[in-house]
Structures
1.
Amino acid sequence: MRKVALALMLSLLFLMGCNTIPLPLGVVLATPSNGDTVNPQYTVLTWVSVGNNTYEVQVSPDANFQNLVINATNVTNLLYPLPPGTLNDGSTYFWRVRAFRGGQISQWTSASYFITSGSIPPTPLPVTPGSITVAALVDGSPWNGSVNYNISGPSSSPGNSVPYSFGNLTSGTYTMTYYSGGPYGASLSAISPGPTQVLNSGANTTFTFIFSSGSVSGGASIIATLNGAPWSGPVNYTLSQYTINGPVEKTGYSVPGTISGLLAGILESHHPPSRR
């Protein structure tokens, strides 16, 4: 009986020695090490594992892997080169790996992270809307009333009175165009500080219409030169001024000449092209 028991024990030990002990199913991350800086155009992930396994690799800019830039499956090697263009410069990425063998799946490795080289893009400054104020002066004194104009730029804003303020405007270059209106009998002399201005983010700028009263201020002398020397003869021309009642025109037919009865303000000269 003792011989039979001993034979059974030896047979059992022989059978146990012939069976292969299963290899553990798991992964250990190798490179890049936690916190390493890598070249974003050439980054290779490597890990250590044993057995005839396939692997799944995930890379994400966030630690909870909600936004994946890489989700590679059925990887058969112990390394995975990241395709060029996958990673941004100056950014942090997290990565992890798990193994598959037959119907078994390992746990995900603990996440490791690396940082890509390159400059980190600056945080854009917040854009704050600005405002434009439109005002008017007549003979140096503030004036309010009806004026037709338009402000053009990143946004277009027509207006029909002054003073007035336009808010919630995008920063950029704005140009003021005057159409008509202003103090009765007055003419527009200028737009101050200029018809075109730059509006900065969150700032205010002002366009001021400068009007001159309708009193007669004098006349204008019209002369001509030919090759730098004084010349006289027939020339048809017109001087124009813009007032609240529309354009006022004075016409002349020869030079030298004098146009009288003009208002203070800006004059525009027009003459037809010469005929040869």
Note: The two ends are 143 Å apart (CA to CA).
2.
Amino acid sequence: MHHKNLALSVGQPASQQYIGTTSDIPGQYQSARNLDNYPGELGQCFMTEQTIHNQARDDVLQKRRGTSKAKLQECGHLDPLAQQYLDALRRGERHVASLIVLQAVETGTSVKDIYMNVFQPVLYEIGLLWQINRLSVAEEHYCTAATQLIMSQLYPYIFDTPRNGRTLVATSVAGNLHEVGIRMVADFFEMDGWNTYYLGANTPNADVISTIIERKAELLAVSAALSCHIEPARELIEAVRDNAETSKITILVGGPPFNRDLDLWKEIGADGAACDAQEAIALANQIVKERLSSIA
């Protein structure tokens, strides 16, 4: 059963999300990390998160949802809550960033909104700031680690959702050290009532398979952040399909490579992909519904 296109690395910083950017830069600038060195209009073009990461995402959204380019461009700016959060992280005030998020949730902002409208755009912005040489690697790592900690502080709200009896295993492929995005996707499934088993980054194929069997999972979500992770993703899917106990599981893949090539998931043997965590849930629930209908 094949379905449409899950950006499982939805939370990746922009510098890690959209590696295809450098192919659009003239050769003499491709080795430069500091985009301030780019002349004139070229520098202005690559100074926005919209250009660095959302170029591929915009095409996906327009094709699937008919979203206008003007509307998409509005997404390039942080809303006030996200800006406050980013400012606190950049000052090194993790406790302040935590309070900003927790107070927002306590006053009515949903955890899903925090993920989609604070964590995700801020991580994109942090990646951009690294890309243009305004954040060091240490600062980027600090902001990412702080966000992961604050995500864990929201778990009492996430795990409060009634269970629906469905089970997800979520993982990054072997060699993929990027884990924030797939963790965010797993949390979205948890908020939708799924039992989720998030395996983190760089998980060996044998361990993924044993977890699927042990947990009797119906769905495997796989994140491939970079083009070099496509072959490991293919190898994982082949290993899962070759095992008699896991061969029937539904497999969704995601990440920037799948946003740039909308048919790539078919080539590596997956059942579908989607452009963000919300669409991933909709697609997964659709597949479950279809399979239950076919049994009935």
Note: Residues 126 and 141 are 10 Å apart (CA to CA).
3.
Amino acid sequence: MRKYIYLWMPFFIMLMGLPQSVTEDTAAPDVTTLNPMSIDSQDVPILKTDNVWRFAYAPDGKRLVCGSVQGRIIVYDTASGQEVARLDGHTGGARKLAYSPDGKTLACVSSERSVYLWDTETAKLRSKIGGVPITRETTSISAENQRIWGLAYSPDGRMLATGGSDGSVYLWDAETAKPISNITKRNAHPVTVTTVRFSPDGKTLVSESSDGRLFLWRLSSQ
């Protein structure tokens, strides 16, 4: 079954039925009608594309990247809907996509157990995380034993966090793609870590696993 992604440009926002003022002597109206968005029936989407598995906006909102199950990664201009770049060389489906906070790097988790780091200005591969042995006692990712599911940049863009199928959460240097540490302790997640997110100040990381467990990790200064 095909999946499609559309970009729509709304025509206007309409607010109706709000009173000019409400005082103790003035009763509020029974009904306030809010029509947050109205789209003309003849409008057409800016962009229509199929076979999309994951997508992500660039921080400035000017680009939208779409990834397919087949590993095709395409970047679109959100104003025109036109393709502006194609990231060739990615193997495996695009499981997760994340832009760095400055928008200069795109991280893409592949279903073949690697994270690709792309230069968004040149559309060239900068580096790749994955492909070397790993255990809970080491600080590298295993192509044989772990699939990466969770992915997130720290707010300052200096670190990447990944969550894996073995329940571990790793921190990586975003510039060098070198491991910093495995922050999970005492087998906190016995199953796949599906989501990781940094707090806005970057001092805390939250991890969620497929069994519904959620943990908050206080990060030491790196």
Note: The radius of gyration is 22 Å.
